[in-house]
Specification:
22% helix; 5-stranded antiparallel sheet; globular; BirA Bifunctional Protein, domain 2; 15 strands
């Protein structure tokens, strides 16, 4: 377990060099982070943490069910320009944090952390002005039941850890992997990735997912020819 000394300063709880704002329940940590940036109240290494959310969201504004006992956090970092490599560093950091608790976390592109083929955590990255907001949700004591095609799980099935335990590890690993050489990030992502050398859909056509390049682009192969793509143009099973 990570133990970090804390000090309350001007409404923040300072853990190491992170400035945390804690809430019992808010609509969305991600939305609050956007509002903080809009009102010039954001600084690098600010984190918004909620015990529960009433309007949590994921990619494409999909609903993120947010019951008490799980971890809901949005980090604000300085970011002058969007960087396609950041998503891989964050995914590795979250996976490594779960592995610390002996949970065999795997990474499913673009933003899911999986255990035994079921989603246990999700990541949402949004660039806002001179910042990037990294939203992370981890199922710890409960997991939503959506439908038969969308299966989830929780850390409580595999270990004993609180939301604060997991938060401490994630903060530590975000600093490690965001600051790491991307060749190391890519190597670790490749080790934990789901779907490599398998068929995916790209523009409604089949292709093989080979890996990622130095810029974070996906390397696909079709008819013995390799090519790189960015963004959300592929679909994995």
């Amino acid at each position: 377990m990570v133990v970090i000394s804390s000090l309350m300063i001007m409404g923040y709880i300072v853990l190491a060099h992170y400035k945390l704002r804690f809430f019992g329940k808010i609509p969305s940590t991600q939305t609050y982070a956007h509002e903080l940036i809009a009102h010039h109240g954001a600084t690098d290494h600010t984190a918004i943490v909620a015990a529960a959310q009433s309007a949590g969201r994921g990619r494409y504004r999909r609903t993120w069910v947010s019951h008490h006992g799980n971890l809901y956090v949005s980090f604000i970092f300085d970011a002058n320009v969007p960087d396609g490599r950041l998503a891989y560093a964050v995914a590795v950091a979250v996976a490594e944090s779960l592995i610390y608790f002996k949970v065999d976390a795997r990474i499913k592109w673009p933003n899911d952390i999986m255990v035994d083929g079921k989603k246990i955590a999700g990541i949402l990255i949004e660039y806002v002005g001179d910042f990037v907001v990294v939203g992370i949700g981890v199922n710890i004591t409960s997991n939503p039941r959506v439908n038969a095609n969308y299966t989830t799980t929780r850390m409580g099935k595999y270990c004993r850890a609180s939301a604060m335990d997991v938060l401490g590890q994630i903060m530590k690993n975000l600093d490690v992997w965001r600051g790491a050489d991307f060749s190391d990030v890519r190597a670790r992502w490749t080790q934990r990735a789901i779907g490599l050398n398998q068929t995916v859909k790209y523009k409604n056509m089949d292709a093989i997912l080979i890996g990622i390049n130095d810029d974070g682009a996906l390397i696909l192969q079709r008819d013995n020819e390799q090519f790189c793509v960015y963004g959300d143009e592929i679909m994995m099973n």
